[in-house]
Design a protein that fits this description.
This protein has 204 residues and is an alpha/beta fold. 36% of the residues lie in helices and 18% in strands. A 7-stranded mixed sheet has the order 3-2-1-4-5-7-6, sandwiched between helices.
């Protein structure tokens, strides 16, 4: 059992979360991916309880954002995905699920400087779109775990692919778009386990 899976299963709210998001495919894998983001959110959210809202783009079953409202003192979490999900989301406080296509819908006017954008395993161009939304909004931070590789061109692409691998080169490209950093999280049960973190300067 990995560190993240053990942490999740030991939570008092574990059963409540799973009851809401069930059915869930490849549960151990998805749990570790979500916990990788939660661990990074924790350090940013805890110093200022109930200040930040979480915006979960390409949320899927919304495991990550749902876990955030159970585990962290966030003001609210909004999960966004273009696919309708039949889950008991109404059982979670400070949480809502929104059906929305991030490529065609521009109604992100609820993003403010206390918004933290997260996204776990958006595919190909969706990851680049998540970064674009972050860049074009006042959102404070971004935590993104990219999935399959999209189309991109950067200098020394072949060199990066040969020395880092195609996935890490893709993640490096995404990080370069938002002045972010990449960390490989070995506690995830996934070969695509890079976490991109980006933060904007705090206004005074």
């Amino acid at each position: 059992m990995t560190k993240y899976l053990g942490k999740f299963l030991s939570l008092d709210c574990c059963g409540d979360i799973l009851n809401i998001v069930t059915p869930i495919s490849h549960a151990p894998k998805e749990i570790t991916e979500s916990m990788a983001i939660i661990e990074r959110l924790r350090g940013e959210v805890l110093p200022d309880p109930m200040k930040y809202q979480i915006l979960d783009l390409c949320a899927g079953n919304a495991l990550t954002s749902l876990t955030s409202v159970f585990l962290l003192p966030v003001k609210q979490a909004v999960a966004v995905d273009k696919k309708k999900r039949n889950r008991d989301y109404h059982k979670a406080n400070r949480f809502r699920y929104v059906e929305l296509d991030i490529f065609t819908d521009e109604t992100f006017n609820f993003i403010d400087e206390n918004t933290i954008i997260i996204s776990v395993h958006p595919c190909r161009g969706m990851a680049a779109r998540v970064v674009e939304i972050y860049n074009n909004s006042p959102a404070r931070s971004l935590y993104l775990m990219p999935c399959c590789i999209g189309k991109y061109r950067i200098p020394a692409k072949q060199f990066l692919c040969e020395n880092l691998g195609k996935y890490q080169a893709w993640c490096y490209y995404l990080a370069s778009l938002c002045n972010g950093s990449i960390e490989i999280d070995e506690n995830c049960i996934s070969k695509v386990n890079a976490v991109l973190s980006a933060h904007k300067s705090i206004r005074t």
